[in-house]
């Protein structure tokens, strides 16, 4: 199989590329990635010399480029997105451009080149805040942040292509993912890298919001299962089923690094903070998939990786990073900027 992996230089996409080339020796992979602040060619260093791998820098919204590439592959797997909720609250425009319009450009290219498979990597955040129970794939979408709304918008376009054109797209909805090579803005890599440097861990509000933290290798094996064994036109949740709050994330990291409790710091809550995501994953498990890494084991591996790979993450905590940090974590009495 020849795959076009868009957004393949990001956190989850690069894991998927490394895993695909390792576990499917007959496959070839072309990565298309814009290399935004979150994209990093270094994430692909382990496969750069593989003859079955090719990298193209470019935008999924570039119609000519996407049309050219789509004609050369059997499958498109789309990871490309703006992916950070806090950045979407500050400036939503680029999220709509990539996560909605970019998906449209990919769909048009895929439709005209009659692709057998198209897989969209979506998120459990499209279900919105889930007070009780677990979201199943047929639930209505109820996104509440510009990020999750733009991901839901991309999904709705795909739904319409399924209905209108019989387009055989699969959608996966993964839960919060963590592990090696994650840009240090999401909670787990941010807290690990801050703790290594004895900086405070900024916990939003009371730290009680829960997420289903999924190790990146399990997320990628879930996507791989949906791609190869899933039915066209279907959606699949991917998660492990845990409910871990922000305080527990901070406590686990401080314990693993042997750092003091005093590094925990409660800061102004996120606007519209979703308090709980929880998904039912029976449908994907029915295809034979199951996660293999517990939260405790995944956290240990992740902390060890960041300790051993400072040369990877230190350059990412750049001037731009700290400017965003200053704006995002400013004290409560200062006004919130409008994006
Ligand atoms: P990431 O931000 O680490 O990577 C995104 C990648 O997409 C980067 O390499 C970036 O350069 C690239 N990109 C952005 N805009 C582009 C464009 N217009 N054209 C081409 N490339 C572009 O994100 P991630 O955490 O790896 O997430 C990957 C996908 O998985 C996203 O679609 C996200 O919505 C979804 N997802 C993420 C999580 C999570 O917890 N991180 C959970 C569920 C689903
Ligand atoms: P995040 O990693 O941004 O993922 P998402 O918002 O997409 O779920 O946040 C995960 C949880 O951690 C969420 O409840 C918000 C919280 N959080 C903090 O408490 N402090 C932080 O600095 C960040 C980035 C997140």
Mind sketching the topology for me?
Layout: E1 2-6, H1 11-23, E2 28-33, E3 53-57, H2 63-70, E4 75-78, H3 85-90, H4 93-112, E5 117-123, H5 146-165, E6 169-174, E7 177-178, H6 187-196, E8 201-204, E9 210-211, E10 214-215, H7 216-229, E11 235-238, E12 244-245, H8 246-257, E13 264-267, H9 282-285, H10 295-308, H11 310-313, H12 319-328
Parallel strand pairs: 1-2, 1-4, 2-3, 4-5, 5-6, 6-11, 7-10, 8-13
Antiparallel strand pairs: 9-12
Helix pairs in contact: 1-7, 2-4, 4-5, 6-8, 6-10, 8-10
Bound molecules: nicotinamide-adenine-dinucleotide and thymidine-5'-diphosphate.
Order of helices and strands: EHEEHEHHEHEEHEEEHEEHEHHHH
State the end-to-end CA separation: 42 Å
CATH superfamily of the largest domain: NAD(P)-binding Rossmann-like Domain
Number of helices: 12
Total individual domains: 2
Strand element count: 13
Shape: globular
CATH architecture of the largest domain: 3-Layer(aba) Sandwich
Give the ligands present: nicotinamide-adenine-dinucleotide, thymidine-5'-diphosphate
CATH-defined topology of the largest domain: Rossmann fold
CATH class of the largest domain: Alpha Beta
Physical arrangement of strands within the biggest beta sheet = 3-2-1-4-5-6-11
Largest β sheet strand count, sense and barrel closure? 7 strands, parallel
- Beta fraction of the residues? 15-25%
Radius of gyration: 19 Å
């Amino acid at each position: 199989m020849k795959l076009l992996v868009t957004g393949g230089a990001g956190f989850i996409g690069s894991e998927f590329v490394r895993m695909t080339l390792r576990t499917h020796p007959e496959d070839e992979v072309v990565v298309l990635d814009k290399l935004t602040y979150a994209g990093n060619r270094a994430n692909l260093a382990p496969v750069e010399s593989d003859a079955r791998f090719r990298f193209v820098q470019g935008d999924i919204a570039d119609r000519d480029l996407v049309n050219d590439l789509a004609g050369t592959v059997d499958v498109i797997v789309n990871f490309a997105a703006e992916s950070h909720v806090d950045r979407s609250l500050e400036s939503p425009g680029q999220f709509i451009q990539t996560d909605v319009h970019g998906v449209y450009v990919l769909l048009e290219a895929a439709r005209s080149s009659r692709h057998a498979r198209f897989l969209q990597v979506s998120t459990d955040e499209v279900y919105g805040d889930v007070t009780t129970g677990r979201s199943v794939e047929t639930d209505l979408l109820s996104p509440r942040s510009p990020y999750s709304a733009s991901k839901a918008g991309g999904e709705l376009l795909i739904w319409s292509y399924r209905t209108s054109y019989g387009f055989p797209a699969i959608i996966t909805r993964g839960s919060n993912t963590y592990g090696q090579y994650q840009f240090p803005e999401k909670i787990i890599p941010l807290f690990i890298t801050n703790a290594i440097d004895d900086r405070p861990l900024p916990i939003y509000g009371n730290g009680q919001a829960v997420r289903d933290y999924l190790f990146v290798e399990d997320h990628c094996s879930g996507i791989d299962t949906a791609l190869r064994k899933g039915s066209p036109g279907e959606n699949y949740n991917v998660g492990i089923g845990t409910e871990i709050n922000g305080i527990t994330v901070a406590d686990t990291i401080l314990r693993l690094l042997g750092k003091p409790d005093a590094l925990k710091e409660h800061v102004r809550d996120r606007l519209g903070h979703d308090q709980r995501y929880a998904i039912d994953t029976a449908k994907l498990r029915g295809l034979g998939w199951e996660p293999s890494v517990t939260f405790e084991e995944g956290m240990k591996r992740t902390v060890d990786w960041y300790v051993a790979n400072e040369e990877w993450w230190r350059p990412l905590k750049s001037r731009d990073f700290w400017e965003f940090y200053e704006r995002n974590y400013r004290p409560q009495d200062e006004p919130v900027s409008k994006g």
